[in-house]
Write a structure and sequence with these properties.
By secondary structure, the protein is an alpha/beta fold. The protein is built from 11 helices and 8 strands. Strand 1 and strand 2 form a beta hairpin.
């Protein structure tokens, strides 16, 4: 293992100690190296580095760099293209513990990345489908005090999602009930319909428009935005009855 990587990792460990002392962090991954934190959350035994890089939405080079760092301290082990996780490694266990501690102050950017780290099929839906197709230009019914993130998952994966969010200490519900802070509202289907907007899995545009038109009073401005952003697909649907 290259000495500079070990030095950099040790520096981040010192930052973790500062976090513990001050008990403050306004970004879930900021004080603990964001690349290492995301790898620890996302990696599953048998994953390739390329698969992990896609989960965490980082370049292959950065992912490779930090997988090597984790391998050097015994948290991971490479076996050909696949990695294996040493869950008894002290650094790995401490990182998991700190991530759970940090979840109380999860940042919005982290929240929108978290489902992808699970490695399970999902799509953003309802209000978040509108939010994503509108490129973040329209958001409604949410605030810093209470911010639901709406995702749709495959029914057979329900237990896996429960284990994932519970393991990270992230608030979630399978019904639309108001909670404090950032939390996930999860709906379930046998199969998910989805398209990709900027590489983000989301309810198809046509289905999103269909849903928004049911609540036109709230989403009329968003429908107009979508008509401007996607004129060939929309065909001025916002003006249709």
């Amino acid at each position: 293992m290259a000495e500079p990587l070990l030095t950099e990792l040790n520096a981040y460990l010192q930052t973790i100690v500062l976090y513990i002392n001050y008990h403050y962090n306004d970004n879930m991954f900021a004080e603990i190296n964001p690349y290492v934190a995301k790898i620890v959350i996302a990696a599953r035994g048998g994953d390739s580095i390329r698969k992990i890089s896609k989960k965490i939405r980082e370049s292959y080079g950065w992912t490779y760099k930090w997988v090597l760092a984790l391998e050097a301290i015994g948290a991971l082990k490479r076996n050909g293209q696949a990695i294996q996780i040493n869950r008894n490694n002290s650094f790995y266990k401490e990182m998991k513990r700190l991530i759970v501690l940090s979840s109380a102050t999860i940042a919005l950017n982290d929240a929108y990345l978290l489902p992808n780290l699970a490695g399970l099929e999902y799509a953003f839906t309802s209000t978040d489908a509108v939010f994503i197709w509108a490129k973040g230009g329209y958001n409604i019914g949410r605030s810093r005090d209470s911010y639901p993130v709406f995702i749709e998952v495959v029914e057979k994966d329900k237990a896996a999602w429960v284990g994932y969010f519970s393991g990270l200490g992230i608030s979630y519900s399978f019904k639309n009930e108001k909670k404090k802070g950032i939390y996930f509202v999860i709906s379930r289907r046998t199969e998910i319909e989805k398209e990709y907007c900027d590489d983000i899995p989301v309810l198809p545009l046509a289905k999103t428009v269909e849903w928004a038109k049911k609540y036109r009073f709230n989403f009329q401005p968003a429908l107009e935005m979508l008509d401007e952003l996607y004129p060939p697909q929309m065909e001025a649907t916002y003006s249709q009855p």
